[in-house]
Design brief:
Elements: H1 5-16, H2 21-37, H3 44-58, E1 61-68, H4 74-88, E2 92-99, E3 107-111, E4 114-117, H5 120-132
Parallel strand pairs: 1-2
Antiparallel strand pairs: 1-3, 3-4
Helix pairs in contact: 1-2, 1-3
């Protein structure tokens, strides 16, 4: 029976808990050897992604993306981080900023599968729908 990338990721996460960086490194090296022996090195990227997802979930770390027309002021970014911390009960929030000049204004916030659209285009669309009802 072949072991899935999720099973490897869960096992790796459980194995490195409360280990020193050196011990964790040895565990990872052991996993790489196992993957090589079982001809499953192709799973390494999936394992890394799933491990990161498990780690983030267990440690209440949220990663998201902010899409705006212009770079946000630090104060605005900080307020968005606090909003996300409260909404998702997170310990830490990491937001990647993306500039998209197609956006007329406002902010689009992506967190996992959630999209929070505060863009001007979305607000105009909502206004148009409200008027035509």
């Amino acid at each position: 029976m072949k072991i899935s990338s999720l099973q490897y990721a869960k096992s790796l996460y459980e194995s490195v808990q409360e280990k020193t960086p050196e011990e964790a490194g040895e565990i990872v090296s052991g996993l790489v050897k196992i993957l090589f022996k079982k001809n499953q090195l192709r799973l390494k990227n999936e394992i890394i992604q799933k491990f990161e997802a498990i780690y983030n979930r267990e440690n209440k770390i949220i990663k998201g993306e902010i899409i705006t027309r212009e770079k946000l002021a630090d104060e605005t970014k900080s307020k968005l981080e606090n909003y996300i911390k409260n909404k998702y009960e997170a310990n830490e929030v990491f937001l990647k900023e993306e500039i998209d000049e197609k956006i007329k204004g406002g902010i689009i916030l992506k967190v996992g599968d959630d999209w929070i659209d505060f863009s001007v285009a979305k607000q105009l669309k909502n206004l148009k729908q409200a008027i035509t009802k």
